[in-house]
Automatic annotation (TrEMBL):
Keywords: Transferase
Keyword check for Acetylation: no
UniProt organism field: Lutibaculum baratangense AMV1
Domain Sulfotransferase, first and last residues per copy: 34-282
Protein name: Sulfotransferase
Length: 314
């Protein structure tokens, strides 16, 4: 099956996205630096993990990094851009920023480096349900009651995770934002020299190797004496124990605090939740929306163009 037509010769912003979370207009007033790093995901795909890795690389494995504060989510509605942009502008270190937007809702810099992390959508929903079901009243107030919201408020999730998944699939990302266009847009620009695709499964299988790959892409030299500390500080156990440094507002938005946000960091939990028909419907939808190659990569982390490059190098 051919991939649907969704390609970018030169990425440019063509639309705005607004909802209970997004205000994409923040990027219109953002002033890039040439060495900026943008960490992009749909959500619940390894965002915080990748932010932790980049922070550890930039600061040589330091213990005291408040990554949540250092690496803001630029397109989140709160705080408003009048507060957020001056704070980002004041950062003196090499900036590493977060976005959940598709490429065509971003202002795209030809010099900044972009890392896009993906994860099988079934795993995304399992993690998203934990995130949503444990959100407290402060979370709902911040998103729904703050001025500037466009569209419907976000409500509480159903008790059934399977129902949550079925609604997410049928309504393309409900109640958060569209899933397929997000993956499709970043896949379409994967060959750009300042874009790197990363997969959650790759990080799980070989985190030290992927950390080195990220460092090379970002042109960050590794101090080999500090590399064991960098790896240790990016493990799930370490991040869980120090979750208040990685999670927005130290986890104040979730019952159980920051450790609830970090959750389990595992794949495949959907096998115990979904029926075979649910999984089949997802797989068919993935092929239809993304094409065979991208759908395979999303499910496994394996890319045909990776194998082709390896064969040419051999």
């Amino acid at each position: 099956m051919d991939m649907p037509s969704y390609t970018f010769v030169s990425p440019r912003k063509t639309r705005e996205m607004h909802n209970h979370h997004f205000d994409s207009t923040v990027w219109n007033d953002f002033r890039f630096r040439d060495d900026d790093i943008v960490i992009a995901t749909y959500a619940k795909s390894g965002t915080t993990w990748t932010q932790q890795i980049v922070g550890q690389l930039l600061f040589d494995g330091r213990e005291d990094l408040n990554v949540a504060e250092m690496s803001p989510w630029v397109d989140l509605r709160v705080p408003p851009k009048e507060v957020k942009l001056p704070a980002i502008e004041a950062q003196a270190h090499r900036r590493f920023l977060k976005t959940h937007l598709p490429v065509d809702a971003l202002v795209f810099s030809p010099k900044a480096k972009y890392i896009y992390i993906a994860r099988d959508g079934r795993d995304v929903v399992m993690s998203m349900y934990n995130h949503h079901a444990n959100a407290n009243e402060l979370w709902y107030q911040a998103l729904n009651d703050a001025p500037g919201r466009v569209g419907d408020p976000i409500g509480r999730p159903p008790a059934s995770i399977r129902q949550y998944f079925q609604e997410w699939l049928a309504r393309d990302g409900h109640p958060f934002w569209p899933f397929w266009e997000n993956v499709r847009s970043w896949w379409a620009v994967r060959h750009l020299p300042n874009v790197m695709l990363l997969h959650f499964s790759e990080l799980k299988a070989d985190m030290p190797g992927q950390i080195r790959r990220i460092a090379e892409f970002l042109s960050i030299p590794i101090d080999e004496l500090r590399f064991p500390a960098i790896v240790e500080h990016c493990t799930f156990d370490y991040m869980k124990k120090n979750a208040t440094k990685s999670v927005p507002l130290g986890g104040a938005f979730w019952d159980g605090g920051a450790e609830t946000f970090i959750n389990r960091g595992t794949n495949g939990r959907w096998h115990d939740v979904l029926m075979a028909c649910d999984s089949l419907a997802y797989e068919e939808r993935a092929r239809r929306e993304l094409g065979e190659d991208c759908a395979r990569w999303l499910a496994t982390g394996n890319r045909d163009d990776d194998r082709t490059a390896a064969a040419l190098a051999a």
